[in-house]
C-alpha cells in the first residue's frame, strides 16, 4: 500500500479538526464534555425530579467535586481525569443549585395548588414575551395566541398573595394579540397544571379580556418606535421582502406571508427570519467593520460593539430567545477572529453555563440546543472546511469556501437534534442555505441601515429599503422554489436512538470523506463505486420512505373529500370512501404499495366520497363494497351500483349493530340505524365505524351532522363496553360546524384527523370546530396543510406522520 501524499494529509486536516497545526493555534475542546454532561443532568434531573432531591443532589455533587480537588486519598484516578470529573461535578452542582433555587422561588405561593384544583383566579403580571399565534382556533371561534406572564400577585379563593410565578395563558387573539412584551395586565383565568419540566407553573384559560395596567417603559417604548418606523420604511416593497427584511434585522415576523413561513420551515431557512446568533454576528461584525472605515481606534471598538449589541437587543426586545441569540452571536464573532479562535470553544462553554444558570429551563429548549450546536459548528468546522473547499476553487472564487462551509457545518451538527422534532432528515436544507447564504448578509446589513435612517430621514430609509428588498426577495424565491422540490426530506425516526444513529453516521461521513477523496483521485474505480452506491441508496427515497413502518391508517390527501386506507395485511387494505377524484385515491394506493383491496366502505353517496371509486375498481381487485342503506342522492347511488356491476363486484350494506372482521381489521358499525330527514339526509345517513387495527382504535364519523351524532351518542352511552377506548378520531364532515361536541368527549386518545381540501369554498374546517377540538386538548392534523396523514404505531407509541 502506498503512503498517503502530502495533498492527502492537507485534505484530511482540512476536513477534520486538527490535533496540531503550524498554521494556527489548536482548538481547546476540553470544556465540551463537562458542560454537555452538566447540561444533560439539568435537563433530565434538575427540572423533573422533586426539588428536595435536586437540592440534595447538588450539595452531594459539590462535596464530591471538593473532595476530588483536595485529592482525597480514596480517589485513584489520574490527575487529568480527576480534574475532568471534578469540573463536571462542579458544573453539575452549580446548575442543579440554580435549578433548585429557581424552582423553589417559582412554586412558592398558592398558584401550583390552585392549578391542581382548577380554580378561577385573578392574576396581575407582565408579559414575558409577545403573544404568539398557534395553529388552532380559540374557544370563541377565532385565532388563538399563547403568552407567558410573569405573575406578581394572585387572588385565589379570596386571598391575595405576592408571588414570582410564570403562567402560560392561552386566549383568543382578538383580546390578546394587541398586547406587547412587558405590558402589565390583570386577567381572570381558570388554571390547570403544567406538564412536568415546563418553564411555567400553570396554564390559564382567560374568562374575559385582559385589563392593561401599564406599558413596557420609556426605553422599550423607544425601541417599539424604531420597529414601527422600520415597518413604515419597508412598507412599499414587494410583499415577501416587506415581511422578510424586518424579520432578518429584528425578528419582526408580523408581516411575513404564511405560505412563505411554511416554505422556509420546510427548507430549513426558518432561522433566517428569527433573531439568531447569525443575525447578531452580522450586525455586530458590520459595526466593527464600520469602526475601521471611520478610523475609530481599535481599543474603542469592543465598546462600540457592546453598545450596538445592547441597542439590537432592546429593539428586538430582550426576551429569553433574543438574549440567547445575542450571547451566541457574540461567541460566534470569535470564529471570525484568527487570533482569538482558540478561546472560542471555552468561551462558548462558559456562555452555555451562564445562560443555564440564568434560565435552567433552557436545558430543555430545542432552540437553545440548536443555537449552541450551530455556534460550535461555526467555531470548530467552518474555518478548516472553508479552507479546504476554497483550495479546490479558482482563486477568484476562494471566498465561496466559508460561505459553502457554514450551511454544511450547521447541517452536520444540528441534524441529529432536529430528528426528534421532525422525524426526518432534510435533503434540501443544505442546498437552500447554500443558495440563500450570499443574500442574508447584504439584506441584513442594508436593513440595519434602513432602521437607522428611519429615525431621522424616512425618505432616505424608504429609498435604501429597496437595497434590502432585492436580496430579501431572492431569499424568498429560494425558499419557495426549494419547497417545491420532489423530495424535501427523508423520514428517519423520532426516537433518541434515531438521533444517536444519525450523529454516528454524520461522524462516519466526516471521517471517511478524506479517505474517499484520496481513493477517488488515486483509484477512479473506487470513486465510481461510491457514486453508484450513493445513487442506489438515494434514488428510491420516496418508495422506501413511504409508507412509514408500522402504518395503520392513512388519510389520503384527495382534496375536499374523504379517502381513508386501512392496513388489513401485507399489501392489502380496507378503503373507506374514495374521494372526489379517481386519480387522487389511485396515487395514494400506489404510494402505499397496495396489491388488493379487501373491502371498500362508502359511508354515503355524496360525490366527494364516491366519485373516486372508479380509480380503485380500475386498478385493484376489490373483494366487496359495503355502503350506507340511505341511498341519497339517488343518482350517485345508482352510478355506484352500475360501476360495481361492470366490475363484477359484490355490493352490500352496513347497518348499526353489525360487526366485521377483514384481515387484521375489526370494525363495529354504530350508524345508520334509520333514516333521518332533518338536516342533510345523505350526511346523516353516513356509516359511522369504530375500527380496531394493530391495537389502536379509530372512530370514523363520516359526514354525520348533529342529529345523527346525538343518536350515536345514545347508543354509545347504552353500550360503553362495546365502544371502548378510542385513540384516533376522523372528524366528521371535514370539520363542519354542524356537529354535536359531546361526541368528542367520548374520544380518549385526543388525536384528530381532518380530511379537507385546501382553500375549499365551504370554510372547512370551521373555527368553531377547531375551537372545540382545541378546548379538549386534541392534537389536530389536516390533509390540506400536511398532505397524506399516516397513523403509525411504533414500540407502543402512536404518531401521525406525513411524507
From TrEMBL:
Keywords assigned: Cell membrane, Membrane, Transmembrane, Transmembrane helix
Location(s) in or outside the cell: Cell membrane
Topological category with respect to the lipid bilayer: Multi-pass membrane protein
Domain Metallo-beta-lactamase: 560-758
GO cellular component terms listed in the entry, alphabetical order: plasma membrane
Transmembrane segments: 27-46, 52-72, 84-101, 274-293, 300-316, 322-338, 345-362, 368-385, 397-419, 425-452, 459-479, 499-517
Pfam family name, one: Competence
Membrane as UniProt keyword: yes
CDD domains: ComA-like_MBL-fold
PANTHER family named among the record's database cross-references: DNA INTERNALIZATION/COMPETENCE PROTEIN COMEC/REC2, RECOMBINATION PROTEIN 2
Designated name of the protein: Competence protein ComEC
Amino acid at each position: 500500500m502506498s503512503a498517503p501524499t502530502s495533498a492527502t494529509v492537507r485534505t484530511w486536516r482540512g476536513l477534520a479538526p486538527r490535533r496540531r497545526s503550524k498554521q494556527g493555534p489548536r482548538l481547546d475542546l476540553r470544556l465540551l464534555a463537562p458542560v454537555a454532561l452538566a447540561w444533560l443532568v439539568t435537563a433530565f434531573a434538575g427540572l423533573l425530579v422533586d426539588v428536595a432531591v435536586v437540592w440534595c443532589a447538588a450539595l452531594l455533587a459539590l462535596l464530591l467535586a471538593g473532595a476530588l480537588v483536595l485529592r482525597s486519598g480514596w480517589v485513584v484516578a489520574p490527575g487529568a481525569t480527576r480534574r475532568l470529573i471534578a469540573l463536571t461535578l462542579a458544573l453539575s452542582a452549580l446548575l442543579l443549585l440554580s435549578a433548585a433555587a429557581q424552582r423553589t422561588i417559582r412554586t412558592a405561593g398558592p398558584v401550583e395548588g390552585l392549578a391542581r384544583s382548577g380554580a378561577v383566579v385573578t392574576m396581575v403580571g407582565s408579559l414575558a414575551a409577545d403573544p404568539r399565534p398557534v395553529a388552532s382556533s380559540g374557544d370563541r371561534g377565532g385565532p388563538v395566541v399563547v403568552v407567558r406572564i410573569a405573575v406578581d400577585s394572585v387572588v385565589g379563593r379570596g386571598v391575595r398573595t405576592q408571588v414570582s410565578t410564570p403562567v402560560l395563558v392561552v386566549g383568543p387573539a382578538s383580546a390578546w394579540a394587541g398586547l406587547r412584551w412587558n405590558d402589565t395586565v390583570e386577567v381572570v383565568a381558570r388554571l390547570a397544571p403544567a406538564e412536568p419540566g415546563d418553564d411555567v407553573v400553570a396554564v390559564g384559560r382567560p374568562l374575559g379580556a385582559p385589563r392593561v395596567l401599564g406599558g413596557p417603559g420609556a426605553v422599550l417604548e423607544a425601541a417599539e418606535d424604531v420597529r414601527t418606523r422600520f415597518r413604515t420604511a419597508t412598507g412599499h416593497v414587494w410583499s415577501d421582502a416587506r415581511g422578510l427584511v424586518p424579520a432578518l434585522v429584528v425578528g419582526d415576523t408580523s408581516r411575513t406571508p404564511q405560505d412563505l413561513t411554511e416554505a422556509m420551515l420546510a427548507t430549513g431557512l426558518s432561522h433566517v427570519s428569527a433573531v439568531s446568533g447569525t443575525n447578531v454576528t452580522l450586525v455586530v461584525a458590520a459595526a466593527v467593520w464600520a469602526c475601521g472605515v471611520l478610523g475609530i481606534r481599535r481599543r474603542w471598538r469592543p465598546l462600540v460593539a457592546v453598545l450596538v449589541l445592547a441597542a439590537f437587543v432592546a429593539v428586538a426586545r430582550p426576551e429569553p430567545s433574543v438574549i440567547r441569540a445575542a450571547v451566541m452571536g457574540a461567541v460566534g464573532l470569535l470564529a471570525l477572529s484568527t487570533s482569538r479562535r482558540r478561546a472560542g470553544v471555552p468561551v462558548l462553554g462558559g456562555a452555555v453555563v451562564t445562560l443555564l444558570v440564568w434560565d435552567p429551563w433552557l436545558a430543555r429548549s430545542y432552540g437553545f440546543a440548536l443555537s449552541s450546536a450551530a455556534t460550535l459548528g461555526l467555531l470548530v468546522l467552518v474555518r478548516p472546511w472553508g479552507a479546504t473547499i476554497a483550495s479546490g476553487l479558482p482563486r477568484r472564487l476562494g471566498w465561496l469556501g466559508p460561505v459553502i462551509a457554514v450551511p454544511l457545518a450547521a447541517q452536520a451538527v444540528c441534524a441529529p437534534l432536529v430528528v426528534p422534532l421532525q422525524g426526518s432528515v432534510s435533503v434540501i436544507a443544505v442546498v437552500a442555505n447554500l443558495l440563500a447564504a450570499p443574500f442574508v448578509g447584504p439584506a441584513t446589513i442594508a436593513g440595519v441601515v434602513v432602521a437607522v435612517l428611519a429615525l431621522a430621514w424616512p425618505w432616505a430609509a424608504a429609498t435604501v429599503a429597496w437595497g434590502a428588498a432585492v436580496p430579501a426577495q431572492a431569499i424568498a424565491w429560494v425558499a419557495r422554489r426549494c419547497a417545491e422540490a420532489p423530495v424535501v426530506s427523508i423520514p428517519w425516526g423520532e426516537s433518541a436512538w434515531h438521533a444517536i444513529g444519525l450523529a454516528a453516521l454524520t461522524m462516519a461521513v466526516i471521517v471517511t470523506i478524506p479517505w474517499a477523496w484520496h481513493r477517488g483521485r488515486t483509484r477512479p474505480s473506487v470513486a465510481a463505486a461510491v457514486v453508484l452506491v450513493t445513487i442506489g441508496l438515494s434514488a428510491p427515497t420516496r418508495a422506501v420512505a413511504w409508507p412509514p413502518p408500522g402504518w395503520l391508517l392513512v388519510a389520503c390527501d384527495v382534496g375536499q373529500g374523504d379517502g381513508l386506507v386501512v392496513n388489513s395485511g401485507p399489501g392489502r387494505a380496507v378503503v373507506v370512501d374514495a374521494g372526489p377524484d379517481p386519480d387522487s385515491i389511485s396515487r395514494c394506493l400506489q404510494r402505499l404499495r397496495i396489491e388488493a383491496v379487501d373491502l371498500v366502505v362508502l359511508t354515503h353517496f355524496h360525490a366527494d366520497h364516491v366519485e373516486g371509486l372508479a380509480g380503485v375498481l380500475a386498478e385493484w381487485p376489490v373483494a366487496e363494497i359495503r355502503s350506507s342503506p340511505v341511498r341519497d342522492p339517488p343518482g350517485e347511488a345508482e352510478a355506484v351500483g352500475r360501476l360495481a356491476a361492470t366490475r363484477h363486484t359484490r355490493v352490500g350494506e352496513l347497518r348499526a349493530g353489525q360487526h366485521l372482521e377483514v384481515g387484521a381489521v375489526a370494525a363495529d358499525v354504530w350508524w345508520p340505524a334509520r333514516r333521518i330527514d332533518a338536516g342533510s339526509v345523505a350526511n346523516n345517513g353516513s356509516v359511522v365505524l369504530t375500527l380496531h387495527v394493530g391495537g389502536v382504535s379509530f372512530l370514523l364519523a363520516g359526514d354525520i351532522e348533529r342529529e345523527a351524532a346525538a343518536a350515536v351518542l345514545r347508543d354509545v352511552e347504552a353500550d360503553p363496553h362495546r365502544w371502548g377506548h378510542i385513540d384516533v378520531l376522523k372528524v366528521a364532515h371535514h370539520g363542519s360546524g354542524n356537529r354535536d361536541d359531546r361526541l368528542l368527549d367520548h374520544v380518549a386518545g385526543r388525536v384528530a384527523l381532518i380530511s379537507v381540501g385546501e382553500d375549499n369554498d365551504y370554510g372547512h374546517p370551521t373555527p368553531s370546530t377547531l375551537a372545540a377540538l382545541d378546548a379538549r386538548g386534541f392534537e389536530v392534523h389536516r390533509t390540506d396543510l400536511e398532505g397524506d396523514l399516516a397513523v403509525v404505531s411504533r414500540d407502543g407509541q402512536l404518531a401521525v406522520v406525513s411524507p
